[in-house]
């Protein structure tokens, strides 16, 4: 019942049915789970098949599309989507971490900070195409108060007097295999923290960025574009073992497993 209620809310919000909740004439609503198939690609395929009164809605968070059309079109849509079924592919992500000490964190700036290199480490992660891996940026951050204020303004956490503690940062990386040589990476900043007695994770979806890379190509995650420059500069600063601020440098390579 809960799943049906969610589907109906999506349909009404998209304008697929009128205020009475009934589809016009003989059109019917069907939901198509997509598993590993890209939501945008499936919706684009279906749009070319719709009758004049047909509609399609992408429900990317739940990896499905919702179609309103006559039964004959629905049958063709169901057959066409079978051709988009993607076999499960594993992606091996190699992550290289290094850091630089920031001598003056209170007046942080890219051009005038003095720093030195520290130890480099490497990590391998295997994730399913269309899945999600989390790459740690910093266990603790020096700008927790700034991010708390920013997050309240963005509606990420409630406005209240009790602030978070034990704040760490990471990047959620979602690889999607496009073909044998190309991978789309969706990268989203996220925070882990304690609030009251609970440990929570908040993902900053509005600052997600996507990049298409060739298999084996190395990218600098700190060099990816982000709409909020100040957020990005502070996000890649963490606290080192000595308690000093360090800039975290994270490079990534992605390869499709045979």
Your description of this structure?
The chain is an alpha+beta fold and 258 residues long. It contains 5 helices and 13 strands. Strands 4, 5, 11, 12 and 13 form a 5-stranded antiparallel β-sheet that branches. Strands 6, 7, 8, 9 and 10 form a 5-stranded antiparallel β-sheet that branches. A 3-stranded antiparallel β-sheet has the order 1-3-2, sandwiched between helices. A hairpin with a 2-residue loop joins strand 8 (182-195) and strand 9 (198-203). The chain is globular, with a radius of gyration of 22 Å.
* Overall outline: globular
How many DSSP helices?
5
SS-derived structural category: alpha+beta
Between the first and last Cα atoms, what is the distance in angstroms? 41 Å
Number of strands: 13
């Amino acid at each position: 019942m809960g799943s049906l209620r969610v589907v109906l809310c999506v349909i009404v919000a998209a304008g697929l049915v009128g205020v009475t909740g009934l589809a016009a004439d003989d059109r019917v609503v069907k939901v198509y789970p997509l598993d590993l198939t890209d939501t945008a690609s499936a919706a684009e395929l279906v749009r070319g098949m719709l009758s004049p009164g047909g509609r399609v809605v992408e429900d990317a968070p739940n990896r499905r599309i919702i179609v309103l059309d006559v039964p004959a079109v629905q049958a063709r849509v169901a057959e066409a989507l079978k051709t988009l079924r993607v076999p499960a592919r594993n992606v091996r992500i190699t992550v290289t971490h290094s850091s630089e000490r920031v001598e003056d964190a209170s007046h942080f700036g890219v051009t005038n900070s003095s720093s030195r290199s520290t130890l480099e480490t490497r990590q391998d992660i295997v994730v399913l195409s269309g899945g999600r891996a989390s790459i740690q940026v910093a266990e603790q951050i020096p700008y927790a108060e700034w991010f708390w204020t920013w997050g309240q303004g963005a509606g990420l956490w409630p406005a209240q007097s009790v602030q978070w503690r034990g704040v760490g940062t990471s990047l959620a990386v979602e690889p999607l295999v496009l073909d044998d040589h190309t991978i789309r990476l969706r990268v989203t900043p996220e925070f882990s923290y304690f609030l009251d007695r609970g440990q929570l994770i908040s993902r900053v979806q509005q600052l997600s960025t996507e990049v298409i890379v060739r298999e084996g190509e190395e990218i600098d995650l700190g060099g990816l574009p982000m709409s909020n420059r100040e957020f990005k500069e502070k996000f890649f600063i963490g606290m080192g073992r000595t308690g000093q601020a360090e800039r975290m440098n994270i490079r990534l390579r992605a390869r499709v497993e045979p």
